[in-house]
Amino acid sequence: MGQLNINKMSKQFKQLFSKEAVNKLGKEVYFCKRERDISPFRLALGLLETLACSKVETLADLQRSFNAICHTNVCYKPFYNQLAKSQFPVFMQQLCERIMSSFTESCLQFEKGSPFQQFSKILIHDGSSFALKSGLKHVFPGRFTKISPAAVELHVTMDLLSESVESITLTPDTESEVHHPPSPESVSGNLVLLDRMFFIKQYLADIEQSNGHYIVRSKGVINPVITTATRADGKTIKSWQGKSLKEVRQTIKRYEFVDLMVCWGRALNARIIASWDYKNDRVRYLVTNLEQASFSPEQVMEAYRLRWQIELMFKEWKSYANLHSFDTNNPHVAEGLIWASIGATLLKRMLALKTQHIKNVSISTRTAAMSLRKMLAAVIDVFIHQPGKLTRTLEALVNYLANAAKRAHPERDKQTGRLVLGLSYAV
Question: I need a labelling partner for 187 at 20 to 30 A (CA). Which of 63, 129, 250, 303 fits?
Fold first, then answer.
């Protein structure tokens, strides 16, 4: 069975990055008309290998690596001219979307009897920003004009159960995240975890109308009317019924947490898990439409903690694939290389998760991202120059990752980590 899965993985890799498919993509987006030394296929694979496997400080690093990987002798100027094309970021973005679509396996699953089993996806949405060279401030203006006059924001939705990326939108840092939430239709049949900026009553009502579920951290100024209030021990606080949240806010610190059913007139009916944040001396609110009868307050709070997984993914992107400010004031080069860096991280994560399925072992995507440099370089080199050896090279990569990137403490994950909610590895 293992060898059959290796063969399947090799076939998928060839379909994803085949010379014909990648060159066709380059022509479809008008990145190139003819295939020369710097063909879309060679450029894409060369950039993915360099950004995934080496430290890149200048554009010349990319040009030198390209020549070494592709066995060419392209000068810097024609190489730069390819990156400077307006179609370059479009090409790299489309390639990223091809990689994203290759995530097909479920990596985490809920144990039998868990109320969360009803969801086909657990979506997590958040944004991550980083600075660019200040010469790009007119194209990518930053929010902090003195410190980072030029910056971009990545608006990302990931699925926890497949550990894959659902969507990525790149905008100037000044563009608010609230303009790029997951659509209510995409949440249908799923659960989405959102930060407080997405506490927008109409948006949450639209999610519920689409048969979706949400948990969102809300701002401290909310003031709905309480219809029912329940303490951690299950007893009802009858004196709170009919009062506004503002009237009882300071009383919440008496309790471990309170489970409230509330309404904002006709705008929204929802459930709030409220607890006192002693560190910041204020109330912490989680707003949800998960039913009280099926989902305990503790389960709601543990589910929301899983939002941290997207922050860990952002750390992978920035630490192990050169997602940073490249030394260029050309917006096409900067944006294209951002997509290329994301593509490199997606490729690493794809190989790590496919290893998890093939070898039946839980894999740390962070450790895999750190460990894959030499092995991934070998895979891409073989694929470009000796594709007949790809299956054998991928098998060596899988065997290597199964030992080098195993999760260190899977049992601890069940006690204090991401498996606390009743998740297990789908291996």
Answer: 129
Using 50, 70 and 90 to split pLDDT, how confident is the model at 367? very high
Under 8 Å between Cβ of 123 and 157 = yes
- Cα–chain-centroid distance for residue 148? 24
Our CA dihedral for 101, 358, 49, 341, rounded to 10 degrees, sits at 40
Distance CA 394, CA 51 (A): 19
pLDDT at res. 189: 96
Query: How is residue 363 annotated by DSSP?
Result: B
Handedness of CA 251, 280, 174, 188 (dihedral sign): negative
Rg of the chain in Å (alpha carbons): 24
Residue 160's closest CA among 312, 41, 380, 4?
A: 312
CA distances in angstroms from 86 to 111, 142, 332, 333, listed in the order given: 48, 22, 5, 8
The predicted model gives 390-415 an average pLDDT of 91
C-alpha closest to that of 95 among 341, 407, 352, 285: 341
Is 230 a residue whose pLDDT tops 90?
Answer: yes
Structure tokens at 349: 């994560």
Backbone φ, ψ for residue 250 (5° rounding): -70, -20
User: Where residue 425 falls among pLDDT bands split at 50, 70, 90?
Assistant: confident
Cα 173 to the center of its chain, rounded Å: 18
Select from 168, 182, 245 the least CA-distant residue to 214. Answer: 182
As a whole number of angstroms, the distance between CA 288 and CA 269 comes to: 10
* Contact criterion met (CB below 8 Å) for 215 and 194: yes
How does residue 414 score in pLDDT terms, banded at 50, 70 and 90? confident
Strands 258-264 and 225-231: antiparallel
Token pair of 143 as six digits = 């929010």
CA distance 73 to 425: 46
The string of pLDDT tens digits covering residues 45-72 is: 999 999 999 999 999 999 999 999 999 9
